[in-house]
Amino acid sequence: MEQTISAVVLAAGEGKRMRSKKPKVLCEVLFKPMINWVVDALREADIQDICAVVGNGSQQVIDVLGDDVTTVLQKERLGTGHAVMQGRVFLSSRTNGHTLILCGDAPFIDADTIRRSLQAHVQSGDAVTVITAELSDPTGYGRIVKGSDGKIAAIVEQKDATPEQLLIKEVNSGAFWFKTGDLLEVLDSLKNDNAQGEYYLTDSVALLVEMGRGAGSFAAASDDVVLGANDRRSLYKLNQIARQRVIERMMDEGVEFVSCDGVVLSPDCQIGPDTKVLPGTIVKGRSVIGGGCIVGPNSLIDDSVIGDDSIINSTQMQNATVGSGVRMGPFVQLRPNSHIGDMAKVGNFVEVKNSTVGEKTSIAHLTYVGDSDVGDRVNFGCGCVTVNYDGSNKFRTTIESDSFIGCNTNLVAPVKVGQGAYTAAGSTITEDVPAGSLAIERGYQKNIEGWASKKLAARIKKQRTQKEEK
């Protein structure tokens, strides 16, 4: 029978010291909940069979994890061993395999460590393999005490360690590979006869050692695997470590940084070689930026895609796509479901929302394009608006290719401007404009001679009077 490889993620911590309304595992490192770091590492290591033990605020965690992760509820927080007990039903159907128990608030566990530690665990034949790390300062961590055979004899917590044990540098990361059947065998034997009245998962290691089942260790290549967050200060430190790691990885992949001041990049984003990331740039989610671009300064790219050789200056975009060779900014906002075609130009103080803009189209400054379908090579003058909302419903505007929208044109949707048509500056267009036509909609201009001169003279006289009275 094929062995089942599964994982149980401990995610029931309240995080009171975070002073947050959400569970601790949902606190973010580089805009990504810590539990998603852990789950993504598991999936990258080809472990898809995952169970999360959730507690207070469980629905928030479930909403983030989605339907692909099994969840069980730990109603009372009675220790790590008790948390694993809540997954007994999940584990009982997988007794022929191996299960990784790990913490949902330790985001730096990585796929390579997971894969290699599993291989070592299976090859050893031990009932449990503890993922460990070597720390220059192990203060606060459980020490790994080994016997003459190199196997784990005990995991001793800081407060219980002897002076000799305190010198040990190898510590428990909080991640354990178990033969699933052996884990189930000792779970019910865990006791809570300690000062905290809790059931500790480390006691299961001691029980397996007593039974002669074998307890091995796997030393992670990076000591970051032990790092977690219990308060905002430690969460900040995790963000700083992760931020630097991502920037250095991007440098190795050919991305240029003139200065990293204010630059924050998601661990899941992709940036092509020869792209220059300028100060103040924030890239969130699974954004993809092509090669040869200039992004920034002071740009926010959120779950968006940008093609090659585009310049994105002081721009904010969310769930948008931008083609190649685009010139954009400064001070542009692309709202969700906006799509800008290749070689387009979007000037300063422009907002685009839920619209498709064709290739080589130019949108000048101070313009709003909302709920619109715009063709190729369209030119927008300054101050144009697609009027998409009547107070109750929203309507779309269609502008076909090669059209010219004059400055200060209002296009009151639903309306269509045909191919190659023009609208005169200052027009409010409420009816369709046929292809190749010029639409002019202006009120009749009347000039009243001398009116302004009289107004000016009256104002000057008033100012003089006020000055004399003072």
Structure, explained:
- The protein has 9 helices and 41 strands.
- The strands form 7 sheets. It has an 11-stranded parallel beta sheet with strand order 12-15-18-21-24-27-30-33-36-39-41, with no helix packed on it.
- The termini are far apart.
- In the C-terminal section; belongs to the transferase hexapeptide repeat family.
The secondary structure category is alpha/beta
Which parts are unreliable, with pLDDT below 50 for 5 consecutive residues or more?
A: none
Output the radius of gyration: 32 Å
Separate helix tally: 9
What is the residue-averaged pLDDT? 95
Oligomer: single chain
What's the end-to-end separation, in Å?
Answer: 102 Å
- Please list the strands of the largest sheet in the order they lie side by side: 12-15-18-21-24-27-30-33-36-39-41
**What amount of the residues lies in strands?**
25-35%
Strand tally: 41
Sheet with the most strands?
Answer: 11 strands, parallel
- Tell me, briefly, the overall form: elongated
Amount of helix: 10-25%
Binding site for UDP-N-acetyl-alpha-D-glucosamine: 10-13, 24, 74, 79-80, 142, 157, 172, 230, 335, 353, 368, 379
Binding site for acetyl-CoA: 388-389, 425, 442
Active site: 365
Family: In the C-terminal section; belongs to the transferase hexapeptide repeat family. In the N-terminal section; belongs to the N-acetylglucosamine-1-phosphate uridyltransferase family.
